[in-house]
Write a structure and sequence with these properties.
This protein has helices spanning 24-29, 45-59, 78-90, 105-117, 131-137, 175-192, 194-201, 207-224, 239-248, 255-266, 271-283, 294-301, 330-341; strands at 2-6, 12-17, 36-42, 63-69, 98-103, 123-128, 142-147, 150-157, 162-166, 307-308, 311-319, 322-329. The chain has 343 residues and is of the alpha/beta class. Bound molecules: nicotinamide-adenine-dinucleotide (NAD) and glycine.
Length: 343
């Protein structure tokens, strides 16, 4: 079992291990007095792990209530958020109680936002069950739901009080869902750590080690720029076009797959790096291109929240393991994507 400390919010530990779901109650009781725990999960994850998590919490003295929503990105919206908030009220959750997100990034983002809003904020714990949530979304306090206009347009920065990642839960992930997390891990490697990139791109790696390394990198960034004003924007490598792809595909192309394509497009000015990203994607079962035109992608991307006036911040690689922000005029975006689309 490994621990990474994140010094954001009130500060919290990310506990990473294998087969540690049965100890959830004990880990949670170490940071929160036994209370009512409102467990939010989706209808794929809850039947797999809900009973074990609730039993462990009860054994540690917590009372549990659960709310289960339909799995998938299409549930990451105001309607699910509102249903969770109403269910919290019906369960008489108070300010001293706890919300727990048990699931992938959709669950963590949505339940995290509900925790931020309910009674102006109650404590919450992240239990990521996808590789993507383990390496990225469960840490750092970005919570959000999507609006019709785009991804994550309604959200809050709200840190959990604890994150517990049991990598054994990845055993039940469909191959493509695991690959979504591989894309985000390649992203962390491409931005900050060439060795991590090479390890993941080889397709032969230990997921616990990769989760730990990604979380160490992310913790460092979040500690320096929790509110996404500068450094943290680097974590959006591949995301400007990635979010556009997700939206245009009506979420049939999942987040990690879309980011994988976005990284290929965003690295077009560096052919050597782009070649290694393409090879890594292919080795790991990730796509390298999509069917949308540069015009469609640019339009969709421009409703993205990262636009600031007439400019948009793109993340581009300088070398493998180092990315930088590049500010371009919105009028240049289509041309930029056009060049990046051609492999
Ligand atoms: P997801 O939560 O939809 O999970 C993918 C699928 O896997 C779902 O059908 C889910 O039910 C299923 N699943 C989850 N755990 C499982 C398990 N252990 N076994 C079997 N099936 C399981 O998607 P995701 O890829 O985890 O997350 C994507 C979301 O995360 C996107 O909305 C993205 O925007 C968001 N995200 C947020 C951040 C952040 O910093 N907050 C970072 C990256 C991505
Ligand atoms: N996943 C991007 C961020 O947390 O900033």
């Amino acid at each position: 079992m490994e621990k990474v400390r994140v010094n954001a919010g009130r500060g919290y530990d990310c506990i990473i291990g294998s087969g540690i779901l049965k100890n959830i109650g004990e880990y949670t009781a170490a940071v929160k007095k036994p209370c009512k725990a409102f467990v939010v999960s989706d209808d794929t994850v809850y039947p797999l792990y809900g009973a074990q998590v609730e039993a462990s919490l009860k054994a540690a003295g917590f009372e549990t209530v659960h709310y289960v929503f339909k799995a998938g990105e299409n549930s990451k919206n105001i309607s699910t958020l509102s249903d969770i908030l109403e269910a919290m009220a019906e369960a008489h959750i108070t300010r001293s109680d706890l919300a727990i997100a048990l699931g992938g990034g959709v669950c963590g983002d949505t339940a995290g936002l509900a925790a931020a809003l309910y009674l102006r904020g109650i404590d919450f714990v992240q239990i990521p069950t996808t590789f993507l949530a383990g390496v990225d979304s469960s840490v750092g306090g970005k919570t959000a739901v999507n609006l019709n206009a785009g991804k994550n347009l309604m959200g809050a920065f709200y840190q959990p009080i604890l994150c517990i990642c049991d990598c054994k839960t990845f055993d039940t992930l469909p191959k493509e869902v695991f690959a979504d997390g591989v894309a985000e891990s390649l992203k962390y490697g491409a931005i900050f750590d060439e060795k991590l990139f090479e390890t993941v791109a080889s397709g032969d790696f230990d997921s616990e080690n990769v989760v730990k390394r990604c979380i160490e990198l992310k913790a460092d960034v979040v500690e320096k720029d929790e509110r996404d004003l500068g450094l943290r924007q680097l974590l959006n490598f591949g995301h400007t076009v990635g979010h556009a792809i997700e939206k245009l595909s009506e979420f049939k192309i999942t987040h990690g797959h879309a980011v994988a394509i976005g990284m290929v497009i965003a690295s077009y000015e560096k052919p050597g790096i782009r070649k290694r990203i393409i090879e890594g994607n292919i080795k790991c079962g990730l796509p390298v291109s999509c069917e949308f035109s540069a015009h469609e992608l640019a339009n969709a991307a421009l409703s993205d929240k990262k636009r600031s006036g007439d400019y948009i911040n793109l993340v581009v690689p300088e070398k493998l393991g180092k990315c930088v922000l590049k500010k371009i005029n919105v009028s240049e975006l289509e041309n930029y994507i056009e060049k990046g689309l051609h492999i």
